[in-house]
User: Fold this.
Amino acid sequence: MMDLSLNNLSASESLNTEIRNNPKAISVYKSAIKEAQESLYTHFDQGSSVNELVTLRSDFIDKILKNCWNNFFENVQNACLIAVGGYGRAELHPNSDVDILILFQTDEIDSNKDAIESFITFLWDIGLEIGSSVRTITECINEAQNDVTIATNLIEARQICGSDNVYSEFEQATSPTKIWSSKDFFEAKILEQKKRHNRFQDTAYNLEPNIKESPGGLRDIHMVGWITKRHFGDKCLSDLVTRGFLTDNELQQLLEGQNFLWKIRFALHRITGRREDRLLFEHQRELATTFGFKDEKAQTADLDGDNTSRTADGHRLAVEIFMKKYYRTIEDLSLLNEMLLQHYQETILYSEEAETTKSLNKRFQSINGFIEAKQSSTFSIYPFAMLEIFLLMQQNKSLKGIRGSTIRLMRESLHLIDQGFRDDIRCKSLFIEILKQPTGVTHQLRRMNRYGILGKYLAEFGKIIGQMQFDLFHAYTVDEHTLFVVRNIRRYSVEEFQHEFPLCSHLIKTIPKPELLYITGLYHDIAKGRGGDHSVLGEVDAREFCTRHGLGRYDTELVAWLVRNHLLMSATAQHKDLSDPDVINEFAAKVGNSIKLDYLYLLTVADIRATNDKLWNSWKDSLLKTLRHETKKALRRGLDNPLQKEDFIQQTQNAAIQLVREENLDEDMALSRWEHLGEDYFLRYTPQEILNHTKAIQSSPGATNIVTIDSDGLSGGTDVFLKTPISNNLFAHTTKALDTMNLDIVEAKIVTSNHNYSLNTYTVLEMDGEQVKDSHRLASIRKNILKAVEKNYSDAVIDNADVHRKVQCFIQPTEITFETDDNSNKTIMEIITTDRPGLLSTIASVLMHSNVQIENAKITTLGAQVDDVFIIYNENTGSSLSTPEIESLHTELINLLDCK
Assistant:
């Protein structure tokens, strides 16, 4: 045990008695506090128990405050100093606030105002982060009655010094018999926890969790303690074992989990030099190193069946191993919180109610609306009942939950879920039946996951529980993402949410078996982190699941195909030119039929939305709908009768002419102008877009530069259309102009006429993923684009300094690949690199100086990484780049992008 002594403070008797008149007092106290802090860190590094360290810091601060109190309040009789909050629990991390209550028996605050102000000021001056309140006992009662948070703080009150009588009177005045009965307090705290969990989307598996406030975090442990103290008056969690609420093993698990979170919090305070509870990306690597985690070779790691992501050379990242331990810990703590609160609910809320028992079957009954195993031996006699209970929850809507004793029985029976259990026809039938139920699919799968049953029954799912992917693209752990996918699919069929995705809500009613989509959702990422293509490996697992559960050959093949191809639709939509009939025909051939297309569309939308809240936007929505619509048409024509480009162009022109006639525009003038446009124009633009361009051009006769903006088109974004004379630097300057206005460029269409005009469209979004709607903003965009093409815009500055702090944690080495499109004789260039301001205009500038023209660009941002595809050609030859040109361009881009 180390010694955080006060030798420096006790060295001078005059210091102890005359703090206010001693000019050296502040520096001496500050020095002592600094030395104590450094001593804490040293002992932490040497492996001292963090439990001892937080208690020792609390004890040390107690001594500081007692010493100061005796100097400032030596003549005050009817007051005392009280520690509240975490300090009241004697849990003080290195930079935690020191929360205190200066309590007076009666209204003597004004007469002691100078002493109070001097005392608090001195504490701030010596470097303590003080959270203070000054109240009388009556004020404490009034404040606590109106605010459960204040009442909670007072529950944890601990006397530091001052009048014992005042503190005793305070304790009696704030007891459950006077304010906040156990029942009222419990209900208020349950509501408070629900609201807190909802702030984190009711998941503990965010990739940057708050170790204090997130579900499963320290607040959930505090929650248990608060209710215990309020109802039973117990001071220690160990008292719950005596009362039968916890077993010895559960108490040990609770304390070990708390200790692990304390170690993380202690280290976070040290790393940041401040109170910090967010486990941010920039701290995760350092913490993994601090706690001794190391990258592991795959063959060693695989011995425990672990499935954490691996680096390219077959190693698991230390940061992912550390974070997996964190997620497994909070999973256990979250379950203990749920089980204990369920016990409390039965004890506190329903203890005085007449017990209403209803038999559900020979194994289960309902007591006051909560399902319970009839015997302690239910699961050992009928192991399949561990799945049956969730089906009963779905089928009996009046059930409010599972009794705490039954949750414990299930936890203690997990060892019974073995291969024999998985092969039991009753278990297989029950699991499929759960997926087929009209309600409760998501809720019960989540409950099964919390209780450890899902990961035991589906052993392959168990391997991805708590598995993170250390990037900005995925916002959740693999298992949480998977359950979000199932939730999103489920929401399609819930009337309450049909306004979100009307097309999906319509399609879910037309597909033959929605349960196949749930199975696909469960298995689409099941092989993440094994090395190799997770889609291919996942297909094997999905096929095995379907075979084991007796699905027919057609259903099995459909699920396996969906898992294997679950990225196909998003990749095609975001990387390919959907106006090209060859792209649509190729995709249609891979899909094969409309049923598979609809299944894949529903899965793709659910998957993108579950990956990251910021990934979904109206542009992606439009891309997927367009791809589905065009593929439907191709499938109706027949795969052996694909639409040829010539036919597509003719159809587009005919439709556009009809629109021109309906608008009473000059048809001859339109046809005359169209003669100068190549086939690419009619391939890349819809009839409505062609009409809009024609109207803009005819309404501005003689104008050299024309800019129109449309936020009501089918692209899902805001389309900035520009007609201007051909210029080598046009793309670079216009993209730079859009960048300087903080617009996210998601697609660019570049078409060149044969009379030296360029017709370009940039689809842009605001940085929050929304279309541009504000009229002043739209006018400003048009003004800036005109300025960019009329003047040299190379002097415009893009602020590159404020790169998002998350992006700095995920620097992506630039990867550039080239391939020749034989159909168009153009070069397809794909660039994967770290996202940054002005990236697109930087790339455009390099292309401009390399005499390379862009025909099309698709811009995809995946967290901190961009995956941009450009269709380019040599401006002199009009054809694909030669090998030397590719090598030169590759070198220049790599050198520029990787040094930024």
